[in-house]
């Protein structure tokens, strides 16, 4: 069994969602990098879940590379065809929670260091954190506390996606995220819908009218003042997005324009939750909803929230009291692709995969990208990964293509060599 597969299987068997299992996962991660020849391995924490830092010295005055992944995972959930924490191979894919997100990333780092005999041609520091799935709340503090130890010329974040099976990708742009809670109150208390319906305004209907105003009849976002991104896009067929997203037959995808442009360069707004407890045959006096707004690269989370707030308050009827409570703000990010790290990555990935990597955007948000960029403004950042469109991270039946996992390990091995001389 290869190093990369053995590591994934051992890590997947630990259900590192929270608590003692995350501690156990950190210990195994530390043991694996210690066995790979690390000169130093420590389990650290900054008030949150344990992270692992491993150091592999390179030649004197060599360039510095930081390899990042995370060992925590999402809860298993329902709908699995195989036991979620028992790695199972089916038709060339390995199934199990964390195979793609992100224990496969840990295994790729580990395999690259094994391939160099624990003595890479650059100085390598590995950071494997334990709370990415909960938003990396203590990562900024951890980076501050270990700033010099983790400093690098190139940061490789193994938490992205490939374009398709057999085709690697480098993620060059990510949408940010703003969420807020909208509270609507129209009555002092719930009242009978028969006695007062048609006269007393109810909060749920008012909220529905507000939410409906977020889009026009085509599904295009209708909130004024939101910015657009400018990432180059690739062709994504409607059939592909239907299959990936599970859009039901006869249901038209939202929005207008090329699908990749909608996902990478356009804002998107969604209702993430509605708090309207069942109350029988009554008009609701109050209701709350959590709204999520994705912000394309080049935009500002604060400016996007201001546009959303302005839209809601301007359209709010006089018969309702509206209150907005801002929540999480994650900035969008567009990565620089002009440096020697990207040049080395493109060469290494083309060599290992047999085809050049494509540059892609991500509709999702990875807040740690901006955290690393803010901490190390002079470092190049590359976002790679082992997942493909069939991997289903966070969902049931998460999996990774085993052949692609091997190619990803070979690509990172070659990247360390190429960056040493670029």
**SS elements, strand count:** 18
Estimate percent helicity: 25-40%
Number of alpha- plus pi-helical segments: 13
Low-confidence stretches: none
Assembly of the depicted chains: single chain
The CATH architecture of the largest domain: 3-Layer(aba) Sandwich
> Largest beta sheet: what is the strand line-up?
1-2-6-3-7-17
Distance, first to last CA: 33 Å
Count of domains: 2
The profile of the biggest β sheet is: 6 strands, mixed
Global geometry: elongated
Q: What Rg do the Cα atoms give?
A: 23 Å
Named CATH topology of the largest domain: Aminopeptidase
Mean pLDDT score = 95
> Which percent band covers the strand fraction?
15-25%
Question: In a few lines, what is going on in this structure?
Answer:
The chain has 422 residues and is of the alpha+beta class. It has 13 helices and 18 strands. The protein has helices at 3-12, 19-35, 103-115, 139-145, 147-150, 193-196, 203-212, 238-245, 259-264, 301-315, 340-353, 367-375, 402-421, and strands at residues 40-44, 51-56, 64-70, 88-90, 93-95, 123-129, 154-158, 169-174, 176-185, 191-192, 268-275, 282-283, 286-295, 321-330, 333-334, 358-362, 380-384, 399-401.
